[in-house]
Write the structure tokens for this entry.
Amino acid sequence: MTNDPRPATAGQRLRRGVVLLVCAAAVTSASCAKAQTGGLVYLKVQDVRVSSFDDSPGGWAPPANPQALADGDLKTRWSSKAENGQWVVFNFGRPKVVSSVVLHWERAFALSYALDFSNDGRAWKRVYEKKQGQGGTERATFKPTTAATMRVYVLKRGNEQWGVSLWEVEPYGPADKNPGDKPLSEVFPWRSSPMEQETVVISAEKPLPSPGPIAPTEFQRGVNYTSWHETELGMPASDQILRYLKDKGVGHVAILVTWFQTDTDSTDIHPLRPEGPRGGTPTDNALRHSINMAHSLGLKVMLKPHLDLEDGTYRGDLFPKKGWFSSYAKFIKLYARMAKDFNVEMFCVGVELKGATTWEQEKNWRELIHDVRKIYPGPLTYASNWDEYYNIAWWDALDYIGIDAYFPLTDNYDAQLPALESGWKVRADEIEAWLQKKGLKSPVIFTEVGYPSVKGANVQPWVEISDVPDRRGQADCFSAAFEVLSKRPWFRGFYWWHYFPRDRPIVEDLTIRGKLSEEVLTNWFKKLSKNKGESQK
């Protein structure tokens, strides 16, 4: 991914007159310029030791490899036990002069931490302390210090339920004080210059044209593109993932943006920056950049605002209090304006709000949809949960019937492909009968559909129901859905759940990247594109 040899013509168009990559947040322009012209060199380490490794169940913990913190790879990481006082020690092999350190935190960041230095690994001198860490990429700058070892010491975790996790730690020092050390780009040729890492600040971009509207008969070959990070959608890694999806035959991306309310009693809906335990909200500029990047590649976009609850309650269990709909309408109309301004091809007015879509709320939803149409001229949908769609009374006000299709298919953990296809035929027949009974003519899309790569995924697709990996089972669920639904005339496409804007460790969850399911998705999307006579450019 980091060695894509193709000319970045799309990126060049996006960058015209726009500064995309800047120094980490605390770095001044002058110091950044100095760093990039050779004032600083990357101080390569000889060895890394850590206090502990994350041993929690669930498959999210990365391999127990402390060297991942200094391998130049922002896809590998270290994760600790859920205790304060965790540490990482970097051994330079000889005394070096250190003047700054860049830390690339995963979501499990340290709220406060210190940098200590030593010549013998026993007597430590504290040189830097961060008291209100924000996560993401942070840079510590301090008086040049000579030491043979460096320690990152966690004083307090950002989330008391987690440990801490780092993708990479990069020490830098003056070039004239560190003979033999080189710029980062020479040590790790696939990486960019020292301060041109993962934190980006994007100035306001002008919208790029749409590759074209979604035609009424068009089969939408989509995936959900998900981020709960402030700037991730604006990172170069995100641009590369979008190129990757294009190459896989994807033609449509549902880009998520999530706002939050505290609990079910709250009526205040708000963005979270920086993210909390439940995630956070991408900035407007990062979101606009991802839309522009998708359009530059010929991908069509559904903008899909999500609502989550900070206390962990499922959004479908939210029953609106007085004043809630007014707050929700402001949230949705804000992104409807962005969808209009940035030529988005489809807009989603809500996701899985089962408790808020009952017949008592029909008037509120019709008024909201009416108001959104005054702002946004394109087609609208709503992403209903699989057990919600048949109770919604206002589908006629929308252009597409959206279903988050986590339908149970069988009660057999070892179901084979024929049984999975039979399960999907039952579900497709149910939808078809419902459409006919209600007299609905709008086409159906699956705004979400996915399966974890574990045994029994078809039984409860929304959860990792077992801890036994089964990537073939996940792929067979994919195949069965494609085989059955692609033949139904009322069905217009899938948005598979899900892809992140940068590589994560491959775990047995609902992600697709790097699994057998991805091959199934690619083959079917290309087959459907060819059958429908769509462009592969």
About this structure: The longest strand covers residues 137-157. Confidence is low (pLDDT under 50) at residues 1-38, 192-201, 533-537. Residues 21-187 form a domain with the Jelly Rolls fold (CATH 2.60.120.260).
